[in-house]
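User: Sequence in, structure out. Go.
Assistant: Echoing your sequence, followed by the structure tokens.
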Amino acid sequence: MATRVIDRNGLDALMKSLRDDGFTVVGPTVADSAVIYDEIGSTSELPVGVGDEQEGGRYRLVDRGDGALFGYNLGQSSWKSFLYPPRSQLLRVVRSEKGLEFKSSEHEPSRYAFFGVRSCELAAIAIQDQVFQRQEYGDPVYSSNRKDMFVVAVNCGTAAATCFCTSMGTGPVCTGGFDVVLTEVPVDGGFHYLATSGTERGQILLETIEGREADTDQIEAGRAVTRSAVEAIVRHMEIDGIRDLLVGNPEHPRWDDVAKRCLTCGNCTMACPTCFCSTVTDQVTLAGEAVRTRSWDSCFSLDFTGLHGHPVRGTAKSRYRQWMTHKLATWQDQFGTSGCVGCGRCITWCPVGIDITQEVAAMREESTV
């Protein structure tokens, strides 16, 4: 489909059209010294002129000194928070004159328009679709939030030091799963935006936005932006044979080495855009009402797989091994794909800077299989 050139006013018009159509527009904004995702109403709420510095266990926002709207890299929050909320009510039991009444979830779905989705995040959403929208085990909360979702994606023009999406084949260029994709291109001391539709409704929306068809030079300028992002990626993970490597080395000495550093805090799983583990709790009030709630959980929690009062994985070694082996190896057995999209969040938000790419490389050097 044709690529159009629009300006910042065009992006505001795009947001307004989505809101007028009944969508809740969610996009990146700055809060608590980080880029997070929240409901937004205009481009003024985006991280204007904001960049970041990331490394293992380190995240800091910086002033880019320009008006770029998408010059940042990913923060700790992901779209998972909206599609698969951290807490969901599953069931209510109320005492009445008739006895106990069982009431199903009161979840009210939101009609989301996600604005500023990166390529690795599109891949993460596709992975969670496989988890939560399987015909035999579909999740109604996820499916209701996912239904009719509109996606405005953004091609990356920069990369954090923790990114390794090129290794996982998930970026930095968006190739599908969006209604509209943008590329932010510097021009004459400012920026314009190349906008390409990925669906019919995306095309219809773009036709209502003031702009012009991009010429060959402008399209090439957009490609140069994404090439610069590729060149900025310094981390890599060798994924050939990775399933057999991890499954075949359950007692590799590297597991002991990483266990000495791992705090089993679960930050990596909370920041990961694909992790989906949860726990269910029941609460009873004095008024005679019981509520069953599902909440995010982590395989790093000591009691996550507790049976008869005892944890199945009582050591940091066993819990880290479970997480990494599932993420990169046995996830393939379950869903036919890796559970990692190379976003690098688990590296940035690990308090002690454990790097999953380094752990894989170290195991390859001393593999026993």
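User: And one key feature?
Assistant: The chain has a mean pLDDT of 93.
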